[in-house]
Prior knowledge:
This protein is α+β, with helices and mostly antiparallel strands. It has a single domain, classed as Orthogonal Bundle (Arc Repressor Mutant, subunit A), CATH 1.10.10.10. It has helices at 3-13, 16-28, 35-42, 46-58, 77-88, 100-106, and strands at residues 33-34, 62-67, 70-75. The chain has a 3-stranded antiparallel beta sheet with strand order 1-3-2. Strand 2 and strand 3 form a beta hairpin. The longest helix has 13 residues, at 16-28. It is elongated and about 50 Å long.
Amino acid sequence: MDKTHALAAFAALSQPTRLDVFRLLIKAGDEGMSAGDIGEALDVRQNTMSANLSILARADLIRSKREGRSIRYYADMDGMRGLLAFLMEDCCGGHPELCQPVISKLSCS
């Protein structure tokens, strides 16, 4: 990930609803969630949710899959890994053992 893409991701996550959506989709995992279920869970109107989902998708933080008349959304784990890798690219001044506590905290248990 380059600086331009990282800035787009940070801009997308800098709004409270979008951050909540992203965290909700991470929690949903491989199941993902429909746009309606996301809006209901966060008490956000459909048109507002649609705009927020579009911004997150353009930032490569979420992906979608059409299911008939509805769309299911998922956290884009490759996008998230890219952002985290960008942040930690030069971590710890050549001493990777110093980064291990951070990496352990990020690992799914």
